[in-house]
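Researcher: Go.
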Amino acid sequence: MDVKDRLDKMDADWSRTQNSSNGTKEYEPIPDGQYQARIRRFDFHESKKDGNLLLRTEFEIIAPTNEGRVVSSFHDLENPERLGYAKNHLLLMGVEVERLSEVEAALPAALDKVCEIAVKTRQVGDKSYQNIYLNKVLEGVKAGGSEPRQAPALDSDIPF
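Model: Structure:
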């Protein structure tokens, strides 16, 4: 059976089901502060602004509040002025590579590590942006929970 057929059979349930967000369509922003989080996954994106390749690190918060919420940090891999931030981010996670082309293969070793992250909101005009900073990996601590996922290889179909 294909996916469309399976989804077609669930249309009635879908119509009767209420949204589980208590009537809101957006999550409340995570309050600024320090959190413990596990590294859940990595993937690569193209920047909407300039097309540069970005590394996204996805963190799942595990303490002290907002457990289960997911936040992401993005690092530009093509802007020489910003590359030092990406390199520091990777080194903090224990991802040490001689060449940037080796980073994708080295990322799985950092999955599930427990980290201290900082969430900081910055206001630009009338818009708010949350930045996520990796402060440190908490050595010797491993997180359980849902299975981490590695994004497909770079040469796969990227939807942009």
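Model: Helices lie at 3-9, 11-16, 83-92, 103-106.
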